[in-house]
Design a protein that fits this description.
Neurolysin, domain 3; carboxypeptidase (chains A, B); about 65% helix; homodimer; 3-stranded mixed beta sheet; protease (chains A, B); mainly alpha
């Protein structure tokens, strides 16, 4: 094929991937609707819709003609501008991943995911693990089947093959190393922090109730301050908070508790971080592979950058306090910045991952990582999960869940077929600490600005160094180019020591 | 091809059309979301999603392989059970329609529809026809292009070719005849009714405000009474009320006016009628062409059967009155069944079609029918529409719109690219009157049951005679088999004479 044909092959690819991105956007909206709006009786029809769309996308990515077009475009890749070259490389990556899973398995997975996720909603509410187990077992089998197929095609270990789909280039050998480091210092650090907090003044109770309408109003106000644009997004309610939709129509969700506003507010800030990342992706590459977000570790680093690094800083909480008081009519010593910080930084073992503090959170993730590796290795099935879970909770956190609803059923990930996703939460936490440290060094006055409720300096830096990169670099290259070094545990450790032990 | 292959061809077709139906269901959810949930800034991305889905569906329907499968299956059609035969015939019909429009035109139409519909939302709110006109002009041109292409392929007049897409088998020559009949008696009947109403006691004002939350609560209550299942559906708000979603996840919308509950309540009942039709379609044919609703005339007959025939009957309003009083705390003579009937049956020329009474409504539709025929014939463009509209309003109803917002911009149909749809409103009204008369004859005690808020007798009859037919018969055959005669103006005329003149 001559150079002219090769160039036109790339142009054809761009138009194919543009359509693919639009269909994936449609999927994302359907997913959001299912979690927020859909009546229960719509589940079966929705599963059909999602499976049909998944199949169409899979068919597009695995068509022999597409492979030919990519091969042809690659012949003159070196003459393409840098971003187009990265775009083509990303097309190849998506194509390899899609071809690694047989079409019928894609369809079975999509169907089982939709079904089991709906079952999970009931099972968790009713603390009825027995009703979830059969579907979960099927999903574990399907995930193993997928891991084996992908391992074959990608030349990777089965778990790594799944991981690579969530976090391109990530390997478990590296996770093992980072998690071993965390396990080496985090338990003793946790004991130190708990000891220090025991000796310090205890948080005063902040008395509710906090009407949901007021919590929502405050949430929207803070979203606006952080740069969320309601012309391009919504805030709604779902069982499991998430950030979905598409970059220019960003749908974030939260859940409210009338007796406690702190969780939903930080949850909103967390999802806003995800949303800002999507909105900040390079606009000129909107419907192209290189314009997409760069995997879940980077994604989680963006939510945690806002939730854990920025919003729980003394500076920001100082700015936030009078707004909280105004929102809920709060008065007295419980509504001081110091007391709010004590609440927002309270550390200790707890049952629920999404409510965990940032010191114990990695231990929740390490447990899930070990369990899902065992599932994919064929060493753990749904029947033995509750016991293995509870044993792990005792080992890592010294507590035993009273039931499965607050134990192995708490997360949506496995019931929705996501295996290989969990580690990215903690990798994201490490990245967030590293990025925030780099941002503070690079941008003088960044923390002072947070004290004025001004996130512009932080957002400016992160848009340039992370959001604006799209998928033009691999995740670790984004981190290295933004922070000057590879992803490690150092910045996270220092962050914990400074924030919780004042070192 | 031998008989065995022909049978397997039909089975393959069923699986293809199953996927197609799932994708069309996805489209329907995206359409609902756009009208109810989507932030404005999401319009461009949504247009891409909808266009991509439209293209995928069009590609599926126009693939040469599908045509071969249909041809092959048709070879042994005579040996198929009746419903499968009808299913295959419907597959052929959909295929012929899809192939009649070139792929690039489908894509241009989908894009222009999404864009112009969003523009219309602003333009109507701002009474700014100038901002709508360019997009509308493009849509008219595209619709003419489509009509010409379809006319060629289907061997029909261009306008009939569009009409056939909304109401299978419908031809303008028949509409011309029915509308001529209406024009022959309706204006004089209208004068008589207005004269009679002038001589009768005038409706007492029902004083508001009626808080939206209470209107919504009442609306949901009445929906439940009519048989709407909230496990399989939702009620939301949109600019232009509609019924969408899929049979097992039915999404209806309304709009509220704090100073008047009557419109939103009847609007909800109207959309509930549409929704009940979809839910009542034969469940065993859910994702097959023969399981779909049978065009817009039958659809509108179902909404009007509930709104105009059942819910505005003396019996039902008698049952409804105490519920209205309880909902809004109403008391006194204005809240009597007689006074409510006077409101619900007030007749007179008005500007807005969706608020028009059932006597003048056909005149609104006849105007739109004449205008859109002129547009498709190339005799009327967007620039001349306001003048033509206003002249028509004077001719048919004797009034002149003060502005385009309450004139030619009031409806979403043309801005969303629907030409050939309007006549089905009035054909549906004729069918509703004919069906209700037949139901009352067939089911003794039907009206008395309505007086107890019991729609079961009506619903039972209509499910058997209309809903359960799916697309196994042509629209006029459904009407003829349910009512014993062809669609005509007789039952409608009698209905008007009985209800408004007590004849």
């Amino acid at each position: 094929m001559n150079a002219l044909n090769s160039i036109s092959a790339y142009e054809t690819l761009k138009s194919r991937f543009h359509r693919l991105a639009a269909l994936q956007g449609a999927q994302s909206v359907l997913h959001w609707d299912r979690a927020t709006m859909m009546p229960e009786g719509g589940a079966k029809a929705r599963a059909e819709q999602q499976a049909a769309l998944a199949m169409i996308c899979h068919d597009m990515l695995t068509s022999p003609q597409l492979a030919e077009l990519v091969a042809s475009a690659e012949e003159t890749a070196s003459s393409l501008p840098e971003w187009d070259r990265a775009n083509l490389a990303e097309m190849r990556r998506l194509l390899v991943h899609a071809n690694a899973t047989p079409a019928d398995l894609v369809e079975r997975l999509a169907r089982q995911r939709s079904e089991t996720e709906m079952v999970w909603r009931h099972a968790r509410a009713a603390n009825d693990y027995a009703s979830l187990a059969p579907g979960l077992d099927k999903l574990i089998s399907l995930a193993r089947e997928q891991a084996a197929a992908k391992a074959d095609a990608l030349g990777l270990d089965p778990y790594d093959a799944l991981l690579d789909g969530y976090d391109p280039g990530r390997r478990s050998v590296e996770i093992d190393r980072l998690f071993a480091e965390l396990e080496s210092f985090l338990p003793s650090l946790l004991q130190e922090v708990m000891k220090a907090q025991k000796a310090a003044p205890q948080p005063l109770a902040i008395e509710g109730p906090f009407p949901i309408a007021l919590q929502e109003k405050l949430g929207r106000e803070i979203m606006g301050v952080l740069g969320f644009d309601f012309q391009h997004g919504r805030l709604d309610v779902s069982h499991h908070p998430f950030s979905g939709g598409v970059p220019d129509d960003s749908r974030i969700t939260t859940r409210y508790d009338e007796s406690d506003f702190t969780e939903s507010l930080m949850g909103i800030i967390h999802e806003t971080g995800h949303s800002l990342y999507e909105r900040g992706l390079p606009e000129e590459w909107r419907h192209q592979p290189v314009g997409r977000s760069r995997g879940m570790t980077i994604h989680e680093s963006q939510s945690l950058l806002f939730e854990m690094q920025a919003a729980r800083s003394s500076a920001f909480v100082g700015w936030l306090t009078p707004r909280l008081k105004a929102a809920f009519g709060g008065e007295g010593p419980a509504w001081s910045p110091e007391n709010l910080l004590r609440h927002y930084r309270k550390v200790g073992p707890s049952l629920i991952r999404v409510q965990a503090d940032e010191v114990t959170y990695p231990l929740h993730v390490i447990l899930r990582y070990r369990l899902e590796r065992a599932m994919i290795a064929g060493e753990l099935g749904a029947a033995d999960l509750p016991a293995a879970w509870n044993e792990g909770m005792r080992r890592y956190l010294g507590i035993t869940p009273p039931d499965d609803a607050s134990g192995c059923m708490q997360d949506i990930h496995w019931p929705s077929g996501s295996f290989g996703y969990f580690p990215t939460y903690t990798l994201g936490a490490l990245a967030a600490a590293q990025l925030f440290a780099a941002a503070k060094t690079a941008v003088p006055g960044l923390e002072e600005a947070l004290g004025r409720g001004d996130v512009a300096p932080l957002l400016g830096w992160i848009r340039e160094n992370v959001h604006g990169r799209g998928s033009s670099l691999m995740p670790d290259d984004i981190i290295a180019s933004a922070t000057g070094g590879p992803l490690g545990t150092g910045a996270f450790r220092r962050h914990i020591e400074v924030r919780y032990l004042g070192r």
